């Protein structure tokens, strides 16, 4: 397979966290799957798909509304935070992408549907100095799939969203980035992100190259 051509240099890089920079998406879905199984629901891929990239409150609402499992937000929060605190794996190519942005003088923001306490744990592991700003769940009026988190991140970096490159792995995050007007670099961890305008699809961040200018 031929190598991808270099991507245009963006004004800013806006990176999702879970499943994109670090492998927290699979532990998150394991927490959801265990809860579903406890209540007799088979956690098939199509059942778990709506939870990928979802904030804890959104996931709790889905569990209650679709599966009749109420009162799960606190448990989801506690178990997921415990897994992240124990250590997570950095996705292949993630640090190289962040270091390339630094080399080019491109500012980076973290844009995540995770809570601030979880994001801060991950930032510490990745190196908080790599990020000029971060936007977490609850810090904008609406979360993903709405554009608000990406608009807030671009604003924090003083960049026009249209000149930013958002990096995402789920349809929920991709919808937010595109709705904000960003270009999208998608490295899917679950099905649902298709080709389209302003969208670059990659199998791995290891394959990503950003042009010098």
> How many E-type strands?
6
Q: Strand portion, in percent?
A: 5-15%
Helix content: 25-40%
Order of strands in the sheet with most strands: 3-2-1-4-5-6
Q: How far do the termini sit from each other?
A: 25 Å
- Largest sheet properties: 6 strands, parallel
Oligomer: single chain
How many whole angstroms does the radius of gyration measure? 17 Å
Low-pLDDT stretches: none
Overall average residue pLDDT: 94
Helix and strand composition category: alpha/beta
Task: Enumerate how many helices there are, as a single number.
Answer: 8
- Principal-axes geometry comes out as globular
Element order: H for helix, E for strand: EHHHHHEHEHEHEE
Sequence-ordered SSE layout with sheet pairings:
Blueprint: E1 12-15, H1 25-38, H2 45-48, H3 56-67, H4 73-85, H5 94-104, E2 108-111, H6 116-126, E3 133-135, H7 148-156, E4 164-168, H8 171-179, E5 183-186, E6 199-201
Parallel strand pairs: 1-2, 1-4, 2-3, 4-5, 5-6
Helix pairs in contact: 1-4, 4-6
What can you tell me about this protein's structure?
With 213 residues, the chain is of the alpha/beta class. The protein contains eight helices and six strands. It has helices at 25-38, 45-48, 56-67, 73-85, 94-104, 116-126, 148-156, 171-179, and strands spanning 12-15, 108-111, 133-135, 164-168, 183-186, 199-201. The protein has a six-stranded parallel β-sheet. Helix 1 packs across helix 4 (73-85) and helix 4 runs parallel beside helix 6 (116-126). The longest helix has 14 residues, at 25-38.
């Amino acid at each position: 397979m031929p190598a991808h051509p270099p991507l245009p240099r963006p004004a800013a890089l806006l990176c999702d966290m879970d499943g994109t920079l670090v492998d927290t998406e699979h532990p998150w879905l394991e927490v959801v799957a265990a809860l579903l199984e406890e209540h007799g629901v088979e956690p098939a891929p199509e059942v778990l798909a709506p939870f990928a990239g979802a904030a804890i409150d959104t996931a709790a609402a889905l569990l209650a509304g679709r599966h009749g499992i109420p009162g799960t937000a606190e448990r989801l929060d506690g178990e997921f935070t415990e897994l992240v605190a124990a250590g997570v794996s950095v996705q292949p190519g993630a640090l190289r992408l962040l270091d390339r942005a630094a080399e080019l003088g491109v500012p980076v923001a973290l844009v995540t549907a995770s809570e601030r306490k979880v994001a801060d744990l991950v930032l510490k592991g990745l190196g908080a100095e790599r990020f000029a700003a971060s936007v977490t769940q609850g810090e904008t009026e609406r979360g993903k799939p709405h554009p608000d988190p990406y608009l807030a991140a671009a604003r924090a970096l003083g960049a026009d969203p249209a000149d930013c490159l958002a990096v995402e792995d789920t349809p929920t995050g991709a919808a937010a980035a595109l709705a904000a007007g960003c270009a999208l670099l998608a490295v899917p961890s679950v099905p649902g992100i298709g080709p389209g305008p302003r969208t670059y699809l990659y199998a791995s961040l290891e394959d990503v190259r950003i042009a010098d200018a």
